[in-house]
Write a structure and sequence with these properties.
The chain has helices at 12-23, 69-77, 122-129, 178-184, 193-200, 220-223, 260-266, 268-283, 348-370, and strands spanning 2-8, 28-32, 43-45, 55-57, 82-84, 90-95, 98-104, 115-117, 137-139, 141-148, 154-160, 163-174, 186-188, 210-215, 226-232, 237-242, 251-256, 292-297, 333-335. By secondary structure, it is α/β, with parallel strands linked by helices. The chain folds into 2 domains: 1-41 and 121-204 and 315-371, FAD/NAD(P)-binding domain; 51-62 and 84-117 and 208-303, Alpha-Beta Complex (Polyamine Oxidase, Chain A, domain 2), CATH 3.90.660.10. Strands 1, 2, 9, 10, 11, 12, 13 and 19 form an 8-stranded mixed sheet that branches. The two termini are 25 Å apart. Bound molecules: flavin-adenine dinucleotide. The site of flavin-adenine dinucleotide has 40 residues, from helix 1, strand 2, strand 10, helix 4 and helix 9. Flavin-adenine dinucleotide binds at residues 8-14, 31-34, 39-41, 59-63, 142-143, 175-177, 180, 184-185, 205-206, 209, 211, 298, 303-304, 337-338, 346-348, 351.
């Protein structure tokens, strides 16, 4: 199959890049390893009698339209419904050796406020994908090799459950975490060793994290004047928030504070039980009777995390564009994905920024060759 641009990865960045290319009249194909679009964006429906459109985020949930102009613009353009993260009421702080948890009033208010999308963040990637021509996105195909082929075209080889696929393209956008590029994709000719090393050291944002979502029949914590926000040094959840959505059963979510090795040794069933015990300790016995418990351990997902991501960075890394490529790949291979964003790298805002920058770079090269 022949196209102008092959985009590797159907996360927010790859899909935005494809939508921008499509607007410019440039043909593209998006190759995605998972059997779904969205990448780290992953929203699940409650499966508890709720409507299919009632979804909760196991990946990113928050954006900040006041300081994230690209997210604001894309969300507005698609007319997606936005609501404010629930944070009314007291915050609980659970400290080792100090029982019960301490209550702090007033609670914790983020400024600017964290906003969420009705239908989950998945609504955003679905809206972007709906702008693409039919057949543009191929899911379930993992790119393993990229090399020059006949007539100066680039062959992008992908392995899928139903067979292998090769796309021939003039140019390629790599819209996946740099560490995955270095670890999973072979290049011919090889990338410069300095670039390969630079890719390997970029931590994939949040890749070492695990998120647990617990859905309930009623928001019993709100009824007791609690926001659902908790900071705990006891665990297994270190930070909790209300995860309720409009028109759906209420919920709480938390980030697991146990290291990856401990999570692996424990297994998901034991982790769920330990989380329910913590929730009952914090919010009372009702918390041990959920409608559903969901675990997303991103560190164990090879389409997000590499072994080096098991040790999460201590703070937000200083992300930024990679060094310009020289040699045969110059102008033919371009990086996108939030980890190479010039601004707000790591966030969804960065994923859109990097996609826009990648397309601007390629658009210049494409119009030069079309003249
Ligand atoms: C638990 C969690 C919470 C987060 N919370 C927030 C938040 O509240 N706000 C915020 O702004 N950000 C948050 N983030 C970060 C946010 O998810 C990312 O910024 C954003 O989703 C990155 O998009 P991306 O397209 O750059 O990368 P990805 O979403 O990682 O997309 C890369 C895509 O490439 C695919 N892929 C990988 N390897 C291959 C291959 N060999 N061949 C083909 N395809 C491949 C992957 O399957 C994936 O679909 C969070 C992340 C996590 C995990």
């Amino acid at each position: 199959m022949r196209t102008d641009v092959a985009v590797v990865g159907a996360g927010l960045s790859g899909l935005c890049a494809a939508a921008l290319l499509t607007c410019l009249g440039v043909r593209c194909v998006v190759l995605e390893a998972r059997d779904r679009i969205g990448g780290r964006i992953c929203s699940v429906s409650s499966g508890a009698g709720g409507a299919e459109s009632v979804r909760y985020d196991l990946g990113p949930a928050w954006f900040w339209p006041d300081i994230q102009p690209r997210m604001r613009q894309w969300v507005d353009e698609f007319g997606l419904s936005v609501f404010r993260q629930y944070a009314d009421g007291a915050v609980l702080v659970e400290r080792l050796g100090l029982q019960p948890a301490q209550k702090y009033e007033p609670g914790f208010v983020t400024e600017p406020p964290s906003m969420r999308l009705a239908g989950g963040m998945q609504s955003l990637v679905e809206a972007v994908a709906a702008r693409l021509p039919q057949g543009c996105v191929r899911c379930g195909v993992r790119v393993s090799r990229i090399g020059f082929s006949d007539m100066g075209l680039i062959g992008v080889e992908a392995v899928g459950g139903t067979g292998n696929l090769t796309i021939k393209a003039d140019r390629v956008i790599l819209a996946l975490p740099p560490r995955l590029v270095a670890g999973h994709i072979g290049f011919s000719p090889a990338l410069p060793p300095s670039l390969h090393s630079a890719l390997e050291v970029v931590p994939t944002w949040m890749a070492g994290q695990a998120k647990v979502l617990v859905i309930y029949e009623s928001p019993f914590w709100r009824q007791r004047g609690l926001s659902g926000t908790v900071s705990s040094s006891v665990g297994p959840l270190g930070e909790l928030h209300d995860a309720s959505v409009p028109d759906g059963p209420p919920a709480l979510f938390g980030f697991v504070s146990l290291p990856v090795g401990a999570r692996r040794a424990m297994g998901q069933e034991a982790l769920k039980q330990s989380v329910l015990a913590q929730l009952a300790r914090l919010f009372g016995p009702q918390a041990a009777q959920p409608l559903g418990v969901y675990v997303a351990d991103w560190a164990m997902d090879p389409d997000t995390a590499m072994p080096a991501d098991c040790e999460p960075p201590s703070g937000h890394p200083a992300y930024g564009p990679l060094p310009e490529l020289a040699g045969p790949w110059a102008g033919r291979l371009v990086f996108a994905g939030t980890e190479v964003a010039a601004e707000q790298g790591g966030y969804m805002e960065g994923a859109i920024e990097a996609a826009t920058a990648a397309v601007e770079k390629l658009a210049g090269a494409i119009s030069a060759t079309r003249v």
